[in-house]
TrEMBL record:
Keywords: DNA-binding, Transcription, Transcription regulation. The lineage of its organism: Bacteria, Pseudomonadati, Bacteroidota, Sphingobacteriia, Sphingobacteriales. It comes from Mucilaginibacter dorajii. This is Response regulator transcription factor. Residues 193-302 form the HTH araC/xylS-type domain. It holds the Pfam family HTH_18. It comes from the Bacteria. The keyword Metal-binding does not apply. InterPro entries: Homeodomain-like_sf, HTH_AraC, Tscrpt_reg_AraC-type_HTH.
Amino acid sequence: MITNTSLDDFYQRNGAPLPDGITKEIGHFNVFEAEKLFDKKTGTRIMPYSRREYYKISWINGKSRAEYADKVIDMGDSALLFATPKIPYHWIPADANQTGMFCIFTADFLLPHKAGVTLDDLPIFQPGQLPAFQLNPEEAQEIEYLFKKMLKELDADYKYKYDLLRNMVLELIHYGQKLQPMSALSAAQNASERISSLFIELLERQFPLDSLHQRLGLRTAKDYADRLAVHVNHLNKVLKEVTGHTTTQIISKRVIQEAKILLKQTNWNIAEIAYTLGFDDIAHFSNFFKKQTSFTPAAFRL
């Protein structure tokens, strides 16, 4: 199984008490000074590779890197990192000279009154977006101010402080979104872009696969076309126009991403992984994986 880090796991590992006041609110929120915490089990600041059951925004001072199943992001002297429960990652400091702050929160804390709206609808948390941003000195100063203000408000007795804190978290999210290229934030304006957005959303709903009882439900371009009520040739044309890739290429890339996670982070055998990913034949899966990565599944796992 892929490790899932719950809120209780986070507090126990870092030796931090769960504040009483927060548990009485809708959802959960807290903010920390990073240098005051360390993993009790390892005695280090290294964060284990896992899917966290909460959202996290980190202001990081000091060189470090974030490792994902399909990429590694090296961060410079100051960076802003966004984490979603959908995507596991591993944070590794380059040295002991690390400072900064971070906040953790659940979806129901941030959007408790907006029916039909989820955090994953926000561009910063959508699949394919860059989750980390280098900050220049002026940007780092602005982010530091926001985090310190959150820490101050959290300790205050103001009756409506959680409303203020929600606004500050949203301000951080919008700050990150403004750092993205404009093309990454443009909303779908025509039918092709709407179909493309719906396809990506439907694709991401199939993941993560974190149990042997799960199996990928939609596997082929026709599966997705049928679900979206469009002809498979039209879907392929639309995706090629919007993304530059065919339907099959996009599906294959996402399946490979999940396959890498399962191979590296679970003890499932290759036949079990093949089955959960929709392959009835382990040889078919092995050939598919080697064609996409140049490695066999067994070689990649080593």
